[in-house]
Design a protein that fits this description.
2 domains; 10 strands; alpha+beta; about 20% strand; Transferase(Phosphotransferase), domain 1; five-stranded antiparallel sheet; three-stranded antiparallel sheet
C-alpha cells in the first residue's frame, strides 16, 4: 500500500506528455517525481470498458509485485488535480541503452539479441526489429503473457542504468480475450526457467489470498478468472507461447 503521504499530499502538475494517447501528466508529490493519468482523460476504446485503464495499471503493478521481479514501478490510485487517476513513480532511464531497436537486417548482432521480425523502412531497405536477450527482459515477457498485455511497445520498456528494465503503460491488460501484442517475441517456444515458473506459481497462489482480494477492487470477476487460467496454461505448457488468434502479434506503432 502507498504511504499516507503518497495518497494525501498535494500532487502538483509540472508538465504533460503530449505523445500519449490518453491524458498523461508529469507531476510531483513533495520531492518525488510522478506520472499522473486521470481517469477523466482516458480515451474510450471499443474493446475495453470505459474508465478502467487506471485500475488496470494498478492491477498490473500488484501482479508485478507478487511475481517478485519489480517490472512495474510503484503505482497506485489517488485523487489529483483532474480527479482520481493512476499515479506512478517516475523512472529516469538511461538514454544510452536501447533494449529494443530497429537495425539494418545485415547488422543484427550475432549474440545477445533476438531477431523478432523484418520489414522495409521508408527507403525500401530491409530492417529487423530486435530486442536484447537478457533475464530482465525475459521476465517482462513472462509478465506480459500473465497480464495479457495488448500494448508492449518498445518505448514502454525503460532501461535503467544498472541493467534493470521497467515496463510502463499497462492500461490495456487483463482482457478476458487473448490480446497479447508485444515486441518481445524473441523467446517463443523456449522453456521457462525455474525462476520464471516460481513467479507464475506465486501469482496463482496469491489469487487465492491477498492478491485476489486486492484485484477484486480493480478488475471484474471474469478478468480475474482469466488471469488464473493464463497462469495455469503457462505453467502447463512450461514454455513461452507464440502468436495466436486473429489479433496482430505486435502493437502499432512498434515504438
Amino acid at each position: 500500500m502507498p504511504t499516507p503521504e503518497l495518497l494525501t499530499a498535494e500532487l502538483t502538475l509540472t508538465g504533460r506528455i503530449t505523445t500519449a494517447s490518453n491524458a498523461t501528466f508529469l507531476g510531483s508529490i513533495g520531492d518525488l517525481a510522478v506520472v499522473y493519468k486521470p481517469i477523466a482523460g482516458e480515451s474510450p476504446l471499443w474493446d475495453f470498458p470505459e474508465g478502467t485503464l487506471a485500475h488496470r495499471e494498478v492491477a498490473a503493478y500488484l501482479v508485478s509485485q507478487v511475481l517478485g521481479w519489480d517490472v512495474v514501478p510503484r503505482t497506485w490510485l489517488r485523487d489529483g488535480p483532474l480527479g482520481e487517476g493512476m499515479v506512478q513513480l517516475w523512472q529516469e532511464q538511461d538514454p544510452a541503452q536501447n533494449p529494443v531497436d530497429l537495425v539494418a537486417a545485415d547488422r543484427v548482432p550475432e549474440t545477445g539479441w533476438k531477431d523478432v521480425l523484418r520489414g522495409r523502412d521508408e527507403n525500401g531497405q530491409i530492417v529487423s526489429l530486435i530486442h536484447e536477450d537478457s533475464p530482465a527482459l525475459r521476465r517482462m515477457a513472462v509478465f506480459d503473457v500473465v497480464v495479457n498485455n495488448a500494448d508492449r511497445k518498445g518505448d514502454h520498456i525503460l532501461a535503467m542504468a544498472d541493467g534493470h528494465r521497467h515496463g510502463v503503460d499497462h492500461g490495456l491488460t487483463f482482457h478476458c480475450d487473448h490480446k497479447l501484442r508485444t515486441v518481445l517475441w524473441g523467446w517463443q517456444g523456449d522453456a521457462l526457467t525455474a525462476e520464471e515458473k516460481d513467479g507464475i506459481n506465486r501469482v496463482s497462489e496469491g489469487l487465492q489470498g491477498e492478491l485476489g482480494r486486492k484485484l477484486a477492487d480493480l478488475l471484474s470477476t471474469e478478468e480475474i478468472a482469466s488471469l488464473a487460467a493464463r497462469c495455469a496454461e503457462l505453467r502447463l505448457a512450461g514454455r513461452f507461447p507464440g502468436p495466436s488468434g486473429d489479433m496482430p502479434a505486435v502493437p502499432w506503432p512498434l515504438f
